[in-house]
Design a protein that fits this description.
Order of helices and strands: HHEEHH
Oligomer: single chain
Strand order of the largest sheet: 1-2
Number of strands: 2
Strand content: under 5%
Helix content: over 70%
Length: 210
């Protein structure tokens, strides 16, 4: 290859390297911005998830405390407390009827001495049993409601993150292609540069210049 062609090849390859390098800088900046947006959004949703878990923990503690307090205040108060525990639109009173536990306790007392003390103990045991089962069902309702809200939150997160993540992926693929092109043109530039001295010598010899 003659000197002029080598020089042209070198200059052309060098220009391409410069253009691609500028493109790489632009792509890096864009990727950094998208990565930052994704990180910020993930942080926001992470806080929302933590806040959601805390809300359900507080709700569980409050309702369990309400049931425990009502247990010593009689069957009707306990039933009212249980009915007031509503989770995900579902009332705990649909599952627990304190009267049923009282009836079972009363039946068990049929062969007893029918003393006031034994009856009171039986009723207290019935109320305690009702409260315990109410708390167990409440925990299931709380867990189901929490998981349902978590799924909604995750769906919302995915819906917002997906287009941003796809764009980030497209930019990274473009950056990979750009880096490969830089390597290719650098090789062509360096090859032409390496041959330039020989090209100069050959041109001088062709024109009789020594």
């Amino acid at each position: 290859m003659g000197f002029l062609l080598l020089q042209y090849e070198y200059q052309r390859a060098n220009r391409q390297c410069n253009l691609l390098t500028r493109t790489g800088i632009r792509l890096n900046d864009q990727i950094a911005r998208y990565t930052k947006r994704i990180s910020k959004m993930e942080s926001v949703f992470s806080k929302q998830k933590t806040r959601l878990e805390n809300q359900y923990t507080q709700k569980s503690n409050l309702m369990n405390s309400r049931i425990s307090s009502a247990m010593s205040m009689g069957a009707q108060n306990l039933q009212n407390a249980i009915a007031s525990c509503v989770v995900g639109g579902v009332s705990l009173g649909q599952f627990i009827r304190v009267g049923d536990f009282q009836a079972q306790a009363g039946g068990a007392q049929g062969t007893d001495d029918n003393t006031q003390t034994s009856q009171n103990q039986a009723m207290l045991a019935a109320l305690s049993n009702a409260a315990s089962q109410a708390k167990a069902i409440l925990q299931t309702l709380i867990q189901n409601a929490l998981e349902a809200d978590q799924e909604k939150l995750e769906a919302q997160e995915n819906a917002q993150l997906e287009p941003i993540s796809e764009k980030e992926g497209d930019l990274q693929a473009e950056q990979t292609t750009n880096d490969a092109l830089i390597t290719l043109w650098e090789q062509r530039r360096d090859a032409a540069k390496e041959k330039l001295p020989d090209g100069i010598q050959n041109s001088m010899g062709h024109y009789g210049i020594k």
